[in-house]
Amino acid sequence: MQAKCGDGKYLEFAIRHVLQDVLQELAVARRLQLEIQVEVDHGEGRALG
């Protein structure tokens, strides 16, 4: 991340961009976790049934 000390708006933009990336990564990770859980649940159901 590059930031110019004298330009607060640029720094704010850079920080906001990084936060958006982090939140997007978390959302993707959460969605993958849910998909994996669903697959595990379906797998157990077939094994038991």
What proportion of the residues form beta strands (DSSP E)? Answer: under 5%
Sum up the overall morphology in one term.
rod-shaped
Helix run count: 1
Question: H/E order of the elements?
Answer: H
The counted number of beta strands is 0
**Average pLDDT over all residues:** 80
**Low-confidence residue ranges:** none
Taking Cα atoms only, what radius of gyration do you get, to the nearest Å? 20 Å
Class inferred from helices and paired strands: mainly alpha
Largest sheet: none
Distance between the termini: 53 Å
Helix content: over 70%
Describe what you observe in this structure.
- The chain has 49 residues and is mostly helical.
- Helix content is 84%, strand content 0%.
- The protein contains one helix and no strands.
- It has one helix at 8-48.
- The radius of gyration is 20 Å and the shape is rod-shaped.
- The chain starts with 7 loop residues before the first helix and ends with a helix.
- The relative contact order is 0.09.
Can you tag this structure with a few keywords?
49 residues, mainly alpha, rod-shaped
Brief digest:
The protein is an all-alpha fold. It has one helix and no strands. The N and C termini lie far apart (53 Å).
List the helices and strands and how they pair.
Blueprint: H1 8-48
